[in-house]
Amino acid sequence: MLDPNQIPYITAEQMIEVDRMMVEDYGIQLILMMENAGRNLAILARNRFLNGNLTGTKVTVLAGSGGNGGGAMVSARHLHNWGAVVNLFLTRPVKELNDTIKIQAEILKRMSIQSMPADLLDQSTPADLILDGIIGYSLKGAPQGTAATMIRWANRQNVSILALDVPSGLDASTGMVLEPAIRAAATMTLALPKIGLKTTESDLVGELYLADIGVPPQLYNRPPLNLEVGNLFKEELILRLS
Predict the structure, then answer these.
(1) Over the stretch 163-205, which tens digit does the pLDDT of each residue have?
(2) Residue 208 · residue 231 · CB < 8 Å
């Protein structure tokens, strides 16, 4: 059995390098990583929080304008396909998203899942689960504007929050908790866990899971990472770390 204590934790800067090497050295594009992340998030949401049966359940998806938001939108698609009623809220209008992220929003639109602005959150129907895809490991400073509004709204709800990669508002490298920050019932981090998830209080991160996004294990051995990482996901695509 895999020992979670043997899995290396990395900084946001190291994760940026993983993403760069995936694209430039291996030709594994962001949209593929996003698909893997979002599908695994949907699986965890279904199995851990929605009792394995999504028919008639309501999920509110909060998505930012970066890769974290794109992964959350992929998750929204799968949850919808499995029977959930999905409400999607974006930090920016679809027209302002970059091409890769915009693709996800346009797919959802074709599936009749309309994106809504954050100022309509208070008018939304109560959910059985909230997905936090607002800000990922690229957080720079305290959340502002629409992102902050979404975080504060989510924390006011009497419902579990499942965060993607890191809870929005948490510094992935240092564990510094900025204001506002999501207080998650569970966090599904990607590829390798981030150091900030280990150093912050557990009531912010909740249960910690690690999910596969398709990183070749040998990538980690190469400079500048120089990490020894085995076949973490040879038995399961989602691992419980704590």
Answers:
(1) 999 999 999 999 999 999 999 999 999 999 999 998 766 679 9
(2) no
Q: Is residue 37 part of a domain?
A: yes
Query: Closest Cα partner for 11 from 173, 166, 139?
Result: 173
Q: Is residue 81 part of a domain?
A: yes
Q: How many CB atoms lie within 10 A of CB 142?
A: 14
Element (H, E) at 38: helix 30-44
User: What does pTM read for this prediction?
Assistant: 0.96
User: What residues of the chain score a pLDDT lower than 70?
Assistant: 1-2, 200-202
Specify the number of domains making up the chain: 1
Q: Which helix (H) or strand (E) holds 30?
A: helix 30-44
Cα 116 to Cα 93: distance, rounded to the nearest angstrom: 8
Domain region containing 168: 30-211+235-240
Supply the pLDDT for residue 201: 66
**59: enclosing H helix or E strand:** strand 58-63
Whole-number Å distance between alpha carbons of 155 and 147:
13
Q: Is the peptide bond before 117 cis (omega within 30 degrees of 0)?
A: no
Nearest partner of 101 among 78, 75, 68, judged by Cα: 68
Contact 184, 132 (CB under 8 A): yes
CATH code assigned at 89: 3.40.50.10260
